[in-house]
From TrEMBL:
Family annotation (Pfam families): adh_short_C2
Superkingdom assignment: Bacteria
Endpoints of the signal sequence: none
Organism annotation: Novosphingobium pentaromativorans US6-1
Family: Belongs to the short-chain dehydrogenases/reductases (SDR) family.
Lineage of the species this protein comes from: Bacteria, Pseudomonadati, Pseudomonadota, Alphaproteobacteria, Sphingomonadales
UniProt entry keywords in alphabetical sequence: Oxidoreductase
Molecular functions per Gene Ontology: oxidoreductase activity
SUPFAM superfamilies referenced in this protein's UniProt entry, alphabetically: NAD(P)-binding Rossmann-fold domains
Name this protein carries in UniProt: Short-chain dehydrogenase/reductase SDR
């Protein structure tokens, strides 16, 4: 039930358990989401292939008075995904929300077009960016149902709706992810499962700072209706809303958080 007091209006997550799958980068969307969910009262599982990074985020949360658990996650491996969900339930008694935010950025420069992309790059991108999200859904949904329902948020991209002349594997994985999200919302919506995707614009994460020049960032800012580029905290605010009971009637949506770079 949507809260009628101050906590309900403020999107409190007190008593909820959330998994953030892909939260090991210090300046990244997943880490910002984990921090904010914990600030709003959730017990948070910080999962990432980079276990040291996940542990550092977990330590930050605990130092601020929150509850968190760091887990190593290889989202392309089914046993690892199953273990993440199992260990989360064991630690906190169940789960209410999962944010799936994983991507393999190490091969982005090799992700060209449909004619020239190496098939191993395409396969790896799909394994992490789409198949891995399916695996997270497969293991999380039964646990959400045990709690009477809950939420799933996937990190998509505006590229899934606009496309690009390059990054074919990335674009296909994100377009497929939108389809997965709508399937989950359609199949389990009546059982109180909410599935949505957040589509960030250019967000100044560690990866973006590494891969973009000052000129490319300036060019993107020039076509953005806002006076600045995005920060991980901008995306975290949307994900935290979707995790809260205030978003009970938001289901099956791709929500663009891009400063007006693209308009739909």
């Amino acid at each position: 039930m949507i809260g009628t007091g101050e906590e309900g209006r403020m999107g409190s997550l007190s008593g909820k358990v959330a998994i953030v799958a892909g939260a090991g980068a210090k300046v990244g969307i997943g880490a910002a989401v984990a921090r904010l969910l914990a600030q709003r009262g959730a017990s948070v599982v910080v999962a990432d292939l980079n276990f040291d990074g996940a542990s550092a985020i977990c330590s930050e949360i605990e130092a601020a008075g929150g509850r968190a658990l760091a887990l190593r996650l290889d989202i392309a491996d089914e046993a690892s995904v199953a273990a993440m969900v199992r260990d989360s339930v064991s630690a906190f008694g169940g789960i209410d929300f999962i944010h799936v935010n994983a991507a393999d950025t190490s091969i982005r420069r090799q992700d060209t077009d449909a004619v020239s992309v190496p098939l191993e790059v395409f396969d790896q991108t799909i394994a992490v960016g789409l198949r891995g999200h399916l695996l997270c859904s497969r293991y999380a949904i039964p646990e959400l149902l045990k709690r009477g329902g809950g939420g799933i948020c996937y990190t998509s991209s505006d590229a899934s709706m606009t496309s690009m002349p390059h990054y074919v594997s990335y674009v296909v994985s994100k377009a497929g992810l939108n389809g997965l999200m709508r399937h989950v919302a359609t199949r389990w919506g009546k059982e109180n499962i909410r599935a949505n995707a957040v589509a960030p614009g250019l967000v100044l994460t560690d990866t973006v700072e590494r891969d973009h020049t000052e000129k490319s960032k300036a060019d993107l800012l020039a076509i953005t209706r806002s006076p600045r580029l995005g920060m991980p905290e901008d995306i975290a605010a949307m994900v935290a809303y979707l995790a809260s009971d205030d978003a009970q009637w938001v289901n099956g949506q791709v929500l663009s958080v891009n400063g007006g770079q693209y308009m739909h």
